[in-house]
Amino acid sequence: MNVCVMGLGNIGLPVVQHISKMYKQTQGYDISQEAVSAVKKMGIDASIKLAYADIYVIAVNTWHRNGCPDMSAIENCTKQVAELNPYALICFESTLTNGVARELAKKYNLSNIAVCPHRWWKQEEDKHGVVQLRVLGALNQESQRKALDFYNTLGIPIHVVSSLEIAELSKLVENTYYYLRIAYAEELKLLCNKNMLSFEELREAVNTKWNVDMAEARDGIGGECLPKDIKLLMSAYLDMPLLQGAIIADENYRAELTHKKFSTTSHENQRKERDTKTYNI
After folding, report:
1. First to last CA, the chain
2. How confident is the model over 129-142, as pLDDT tens digits?
3. Phi, psi of 46, rounded to the nearest 5 degrees
4. Please, which of 36, 190, 221, 246 could form a disulfide with 46 given CB 3.0 to 4.6 Å?
5. Pairing state of beta strands 26-29 and 3-6?
6. If we measure between CA atoms, which residue out of 146, 117, 145, 143 comes closest to residue 132?
7. CA 12/CA 133 separation, integer angstroms
8. How many CB atoms lie within 10 A of CB 269?
């Protein structure tokens, strides 16, 4: 079996590394020559030209741009696969909005499609790396069988769901849920600050309850995934005021942090200027 991993960035790189241990005929593909060269240095075949394969794992970026989901890289990859081998199994590990996989399957007349979103986390790759429990939805029974055989060979445990759409939505919901938790913590920290209370003491206190796990409030909600995925979810389901409120809460928290940093820097500069100023008597 030939396997090709499309997209050799933060997610695709560890994916192609892991797959190459199980499948000797594994190749990486990326439009970036730099990314391709990095994979080649690891002893894995890679190219900027897509090769024929039996299985394609798509791990390219998706975005939320200009107020809309941008799945252009996903469609570009799918179109290329359809031209090379329309009978190949395509496993989407990228983050998709609802209905994308089914729509592309229909558009390019593909019958072997699975959605198995990644859950890889760089900060704790030993615990949350490529091999961890994943959600999988398939276009049909044959796609499901082929995908389960593939991921079983890779040693990746799978939780099967009934459709492509549930699998797509699961990734958006997971990250949005975490976004909500952090936004709530941020709002509570602002509340504590205004009332001269310790948020950390409050957090420690409420987390003693068995069903509470309040998140930390740090420097605002950043990174590639959380701010993007909450907007991707909202783009599919417009009437979600709770999510809009969470975004506003994070914006307010960031604004307060910026204001404090500006005030602290301004006061510090004034102090230094006063301490270093020379008076002529």
Report:
1. 88
2. 899 999 999 999 99
3. -155, 155
4. 36
5. parallel
6. 117
7. 17
8. 10
